Amino acid sequence: MTMAGKARTALAGALLCLVSLASANVIGVDLGTDFMKVALVAPRRPLEIVTNTASKRKTAMAINFDRGERSFGGDALVMLARKPAQTFTKLTALLGRHEDHPDIKALESTGLPPLSWNATRGGLELRLKDRGQESTYMPEELTAMMLSHAHEMTHMFGYNVPDAVITVPSYWTAHERLALADAVELSALNALSFIDENTAAALQYAIDRPKDKPHNVLFYNMGAGSTQVSVVTYGPKMVKDSNVGQFTLRGKAWDTSLGGHWFDLALTDLLATQFNLKWGGGDVRDHPRAMARLRSQAAKVKQVLSANMEIPVTVEQLHADIDFNTLVTRAQFEVAAADLFDRVTAPIDAALAAANLTLADVHEVEIVGGGVRVPRVQELLSAHLPLPLSVHLNGDEAFALGAAFAGANASRAFHVRQVGMSDITPFAVDLHLADAPRATAATAGGNVFSNMLHKLDGKEKEGGEDGEGVGEAEFKRSVPLYAVNAPVSARKAITIKHTRDLRANVTYADANPYLPAGTQTMIASFNITGVEKFAAETLADGLGVPKVTLRFAMDATGVPTLVEAFAEVPVQKEVTYEEVVEVEDEPAPAANDTAADAAAVDGDAAAAKAEGGEEVEAAAAVAGDKEGGEDAAAAAEGAKEGDAEGDKEGEGAGKKGDAKKKKGDKKADKKGDKKKKEKPKKKKTKTVTRTKMVTSSRRRALEVERHFSYSELRPMTAEEKAAAKTRLGALAAADAARHAKAAAKNDLEAYILMVRNAAGEDAKKELKAVTTEEQREELVTLANQLEEWLYDDGWDEEASVYKAKKLELSAPAEAAFHRMKEATARPAEVKRARLFIGKVRETCEGWKTKKPHITDEERQDLLEKLDKVDKWLVDKEDAQAALAPHAPPAFASKDVEPQLKTVQALLQRLNKKPAPKVEKPAQNETATAAAADSESADGGEKAEGGEDAATAPAEEGEAAEGAGGQERDAAAEGAEKPAEEPRDEL
């Protein structure tokens, strides 16, 4: 696989890892035609819109280059009227499109910078002329700049969020999506996935609106550049015994030249016509700067007319020193844009037809986008739809919020209400297969592969169906890969028997009713190698022709791609294995078993003899010879008697023999049951060798190289992206240096003003107390000199120069400010230190009684350290008193605290020193002592009372013992846990 192929495969793999690689924070980026919105989702924070540097919730999609400096958003948009050739807008509309694309032709008339087609690169380029130098930028580079700006906005918002879910229009094909993927790779963002704008709005709608039954909602989205309509079905979904919401896209439709921007152009044309009537000197449309001002004015007129019936328009010195003044009414606007209003409802009918639904099946209509604010649009929608127009969502921010929620919905880092989502692709895709050229599988050229596009009937020139048995015959096959409105999550697998390396073309189907006009049908080409080598091995081993399987899927960008290719053949082989089986060990027959068997034989022989058979006699003879066969012998004898009486009596003898046989069987059964109970059969195991046929497969992964050699419009190569990253990195470094320069310059200017005001005639008395008149005049003079330098020679210097100049002024100024600060801070710190020393001395004296376990040596050590600190304070105060107020101080307030650290550490250690524990007497010793005291106290009574005192009632003795035990326990507990002494607090 080539480096370019590996890079694209890596990108596709990275985009497919949406769930596992998502970080704790995710942003949703809505890249509109005119404005960009960024939404943030973070743990323990609600979904919110990220504001830009101007605290605006939306950022203009505009970049301006002026004198080597870049500006973004609103700062760039204000330059559009003054320098339209240096301001780039409508960036996303230029991605992945040919110069002949109808939308590109329409945008060229709106004042875009000059466009050119780069056949070598396979894409558009925009020319820029700044400071006399010409340069070109690809739409991918400009879009990457805006995405990096979105990343910087999250920094200013207090977050560093690299992961993003980005919205795309529903009508974007693989070419626009691949171009946007290149732009993301060039930017500072990591795209987790792309999501359709209306799908993002539908997801935002589903957050707090779970449906218990199927519910159809029609989303009508009229934005700046296009109108998109989607039909969505909401319904319940069971997840872990609970209902969660889910929705499925049923149909999509759009109009790529109907939206707010096109209304602006209609108003612009109206204003230009009115100005031409006043001017009378030509057509103002031929002058880009004047037209840029009119377009800007038209956007404001449209907004005002949404709430008013008319608006006066004034543009000073629009062109040729002529002021433009006119009055525009809503009726004039509706007439000027009549062709646009006639197409407002057409996408609704197309979306319903794609979903196989009617207006009667729709339960709700949700309108979003800025274009729906035009009153005439709402009138047309209300007249066409049988339902009221709903505005539950924020029409401008729903797409960004839905995209951010999509990242949270798919990530494990968030605990949000899960919403199931199933999107569809409106474009049919075909797969064309053919043999790779024998010379090399990587041969590039437009003519080599052109024959792959011819549809065949499924049979080859030579060989069987599916390529089986193909030798040198050319193999061609075209099959549908994705149908119209196929689920985006669907995976497709194509399997053929083949012996040669393959080439596969993924293209849009010829019969594709929704494919936008001007779309290149070729999507991507894949070289699949390794088939021939594997087939040679399998044929040599007698395994036959291998099956080649190609697996396709939609990646996170929504582009069909070949995700896996392998070849395999079935292999059958005999496998020998050992199995352990269980067998029964038959015991030797016993005497009673022999008798039972003989009885059974006797019965059979008697029956046979009755019919004249001689075999019965032989059986009876054998049975009679056996030991213990008395019943059998009797049965044989009966049979003989029956034979002598004649044929008539033979039947009776036979019956008698049958009766005896049954009797013998019953005896045998009883004896057999008794034998089974008494002597069970023994069981044992043995190992048996067996064989069986096992079918497996020999599989080989195939090499896949993705390329765009047969596409006139193609994504950027790895080399082109490396060069673009280098250039964008240089621009970012220049911006960072410029920002640092501006910050240093502003810092110096502000510091000059602060010093001059502080040391001037209105200086504070605190500063005058620690400085002389000469010192203050010197500060003011130095500040004035730096200001003159800043506005003259130092106007355009590097940030390091401004920082060095600030040091020249800050050295004497900060010394004066430091003395002013220390004049109050130093005495306060000394006072605090002396209070601390006094408190410690009191605490140390109290330890003699409160904490006698602290030794005299330890207290003396603490007092000596206090004396050292006290002496240091006295020496420093004497040194400071000997200095003039404007001289450098002998010590600072911050120098006092380190002197107290040693005292504080020792004080803390001594204060936590535990008192020695009092040992608790043993229980038997306590009982003995108590008994001795009791005997001593009652000795006289016992001597006088004799036996009565010695024989006290048991109850009284037990009560006394219980009371004495409680008292001893209390005394022991008190000895073990002495009362806690109060601690001194400082």
From TrEMBL:
Signal sequence, start to end: 1-24
Biased composition annotated in UniProt, kind: Basic residues: 673-689
Compositional bias ranges of the Basic and acidic residues kind: 638-657, 966-986
Top-level taxon: Eukaryota
Pfam short name (any one): HSP70
GO cellular component, one term: endoplasmic reticulum chaperone complex
An annotated GO BP: endoplasmic reticulum unfolded protein response
Keywords: ATP-binding, Chaperone, Endoplasmic reticulum, Nucleotide-binding, Signal, Stress response
Region Disordered: start-end pairs: 603-700, 907-986
Any one GO molecular-function label of the UniProt entry: ATP binding
Protein name: Heat shock protein 70
Organism: Tribonema minus
Lineage, top ranks: Eukaryota, Sar, Stramenopiles, Ochrophyta, PX clade
